[in-house]
Amino acid sequence: MTFLQLLQSLEERLGHIHLPVRPQATGLQDLFEGCGLHHELTVALVRAIYTENHCRHIKDGVVAEASFKAVTPIHAAVAHAERTDIDTYRFSEGFLAALQTAFEQKPHPRPVRPQAPRGQVLPFPTLRRRAHR
């Protein structure tokens, strides 16, 4: 899964209001269409995933282990901060859950279609066979 695909998957789970990802983004600077709710926290989480996966471009691959390693300290800081409001905490929890779901999702295999025969052998009527001899 690429970094951009991961963010699009997170956007589907969390909503566009939290992660306003631009589908035509070409770099990290133009990744978001605007400021979503909890924008600073979102940017911190996204940059941490990008950095921990050693990405150089948004189409570089990401792995679950590095992504969770990146977001865990940020989530812990939010959870243990003295002035964290309930909405920020819930968003942080939701982000972790969406991240886990995104990596657990298996690609759907394409169904195998039976191949249609390319041609048929048609019986030639006995009468016509005699006529062509």
Care to describe what's here?
The chain has 133 residues and is mainly alpha-helical. The protein is elongated. 51% of the residues lie in helices and 0% in strands. The longest helix has 19 residues, at 86-104. Helix 3 (64-80) packs antiparallel against helix 4 (86-104). The chain is built from 5 helices and no strands.
Mind sketching the topology for me?
Layout: H1 3-14, H2 39-52, H3 64-80, H4 86-104, H5 126-131
Helix pairs in contact: 1-4, 2-3, 3-4
Strand content: under 5%
Biggest pleated sheet: none
Distance between the termini: 66 Å
Mean pLDDT: 84
Q: Write down the Rg.
A: 26 Å
User: What is the percent of helical residues?
Assistant: 40-55%
* Series of secondary-structure elements, N-terminal to C-terminal: HHHHH
Counted by DSSP, the helix tally is 5
Structure classification:
mainly alpha
User: Per the principal axes of the C-alpha atoms, what is the gross shape?
Assistant: elongated
Number-wise, the strands total: 0
Low-confidence stretches: none
Briefly characterize the structure.
The protein has 133 residues and is mainly α. The protein has helices at residues 3-14, 39-52, 64-80, 86-104, 126-131.
Descriptors:
133 residues, 5 helices, mainly alpha, single chain
